[in-house]
């Protein structure tokens, strides 16, 4: 990819350069990572670096979520050294809004080559994530990527390989794993065992939302609808807490935006765990308002647990309540970004694996792609990257 002219097209414009995803990188096993932490775990394993020099961080993509990343990077004591977005006017306004005095680029590959940042945060449309991750990792630049890490199994294979071969660290923003109530829920699940689980996401996304970006609502650029965008975090929490399913039977449909979007606005799924347990999931963007995304569990000793980003309840009794006031951005994004970003840089400074790398973040991608392939039939969830023909079929 290096040395080639940027490819200009309606969807990708100057974010990308021609060529296949990079296949070679450094020699560090960046794909290895710690498992998801229980409450109180992992903090001692990823202390802040003794080197007080801030890392030079570039933000690629200056859309809605980017402001949350700027706030979190600053809170972690790092330095914004460059910005990239295909919309020159937007990136200029973004820099002014957040008081960033740094070079601005329209081509991310040019930014990587000229600035040589220590780390990049990828906040672009979904279809650009995998290729951007791979190029940065190939240059041994640390990467923190917004969800989803990728939108096909073939891309997941490429990113996983690039992370394993790079000396840099790859992290993915599954920030709800850092929400205090959900950490407590996972601790209770580990203590009492899980018989069954359920996740629900019911939000409102209307035609104006999908008209706000040409990549939204298109299979080729968003990768899907409610599942790969809005509901991904809650499904990730369900498998993180309950275990990775082996099979799924799913139905997807478009209930209220037919003719506006190509992808699903509503989905249901029944997941089967290897040990016989079942997980139910429902997601829609056809709701009349944004309801709290929730996870409910029935434990092995018949306790009923409920959690969202604001409260945790056991047997109908309030166990914990927390404020849900993100530093920047939408309330539905929660408050986990700041702690996730801080942990990312602590791990880099301590030369420890970050807990949400390619394999860990790839789990929810495999679940969602299996849902899309199900069409009402019971199908196996792909076990890992490198599954051959499935990379094209899904």
Notes on the protein architecture:
The protein is of the alpha/beta class and 394 residues long. It has 2 domains: 32-176 and 348-356, NAD(P)-binding Rossmann-like Domain (Rossmann fold, 3-Layer(aba) Sandwich), CATH 3.40.50; 180-316, Dihydrodipicolinate Reductase, domain 2, CATH 3.30.360.10. 30% of the residues lie in helices and 19% in strands. The chain has helices at 66-75, 88-97, 108-115, 129-138, 153-165, 180-192, 207-211, 219-222, 232-242, 336-350, 358-374, 390-393; strands spanning 56-60, 79-84, 104-105, 119-122, 142-145, 170-172, 194-202, 247-253, 266-272, 278-284, 294-299, 304-307, 311-314, 317-321, 378-380. The longest helix has 17 residues, at 358-374. It is globular and about 55 Å long.
Annotated CATH homologous superfamily of the largest domain: NAD(P)-binding Rossmann-like Domain
How many E-type strands? 15
The total count of helices amounts to 12
Which of globular, elongated, flat, extended, rod-shaped describes the shape?
globular
The H-and-E topology, N to C, reads as: EHEHEHEHEHEHEHHHEEEEEEEHHEH
Determine the structural class based on helices, strands and strand pairing.
alpha/beta
State the helicity in percent bands.
25-40%
What is the C-alpha radius of gyration, as a whole number of Å?
Answer: 20 Å
User: Overall pLDDT, averaged?
Assistant: 86
**What's the arrangement of strands in the largest beta sheet?**
14-13-12-11-7-10-9-8-15
Largest sheet data: 9 strands, mixed
Which second-level CATH architecture of the largest domain applies? 3-Layer(aba) Sandwich
- Count of individual domains: 2
Ranges with pLDDT <50 over ≥5 residues?
A: 1-50, 387-394
């Amino acid at each position: 990819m290096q040395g080639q002219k940027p490819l200009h097209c309606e969807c990708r414009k100057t974010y990308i350069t021609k060529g296949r995803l990079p296949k070679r990188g450094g020699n560090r096993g960046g794909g290895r990572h710690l498992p998801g932490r229980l409450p109180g775990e992992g903090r001692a394993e990823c202390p802040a670096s003794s080197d007080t020099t801030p890392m030079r961080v570039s933000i690629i993509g200056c859309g809605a979520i980017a402001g949350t990343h700027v706030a979190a990077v600053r809170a972690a004591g790092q330095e914004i050294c460059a910005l990239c977005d295909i919309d020159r006017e937007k990136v200029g306004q973004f820099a002014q809004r957040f008081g960033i005095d740094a070079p601005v680029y329209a081509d991310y590959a040019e930014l990587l080559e000229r600035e040589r940042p220590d780390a990049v945060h990828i906040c672009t449309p979904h279809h650009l994530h995998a290729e951007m991750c791979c190029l940065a990792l190939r240059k041994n630049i640390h990467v923190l990527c917004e969800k989803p890490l990728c939108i096909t199994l073939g891309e997941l294979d490429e990113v996983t390989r690039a992370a394993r071969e790079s000396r840099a660290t790859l992290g993915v923003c599954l920030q709800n794993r850092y929400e205090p109530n959900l950490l407590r829920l996972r601790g209770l699940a580990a203590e009492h065992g899980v018989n069954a689980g359920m996740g629900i996401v019911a939000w409102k996304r209307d035609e104006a939302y999908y008209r706000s970006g040409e990549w939204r609502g298109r299979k080729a650029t968003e990768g899907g609808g409610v599942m790969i965008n809005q509901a991904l975090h809650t499904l990730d929490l369900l498998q993180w807490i309950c275990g990775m399913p082996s099979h799924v039977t799913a139905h997807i449909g478009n209930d209220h935006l037919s003719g506006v979007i190509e992808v699903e606005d509503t989905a249901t799924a029944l997941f089967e765990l290897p040990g016989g347990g079942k997980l139910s999931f429902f997601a829609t963007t056809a709701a009349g308002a944004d309801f709290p995304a929730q996870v409910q569990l029935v434990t092995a000793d018949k306790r009923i647990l409920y959690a969202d980003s604001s409260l945790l309840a056991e047997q109908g009794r309030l166990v914990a309540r927390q404020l849900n006031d993100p530093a920047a951005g939408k309330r539905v994004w929660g408050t986990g970004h700041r702690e996730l970003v801080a942990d990312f840089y602590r791990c880099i400074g301590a030369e420890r694996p970050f807990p949400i790398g390619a394999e860990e973040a790839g789990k929810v991608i495999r679940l969602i792609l299996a849902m899309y392939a199900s069409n009402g039939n019971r199908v196996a969830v792909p076990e890992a990257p490198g599954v051959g023909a499935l990379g094209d079929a899904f």
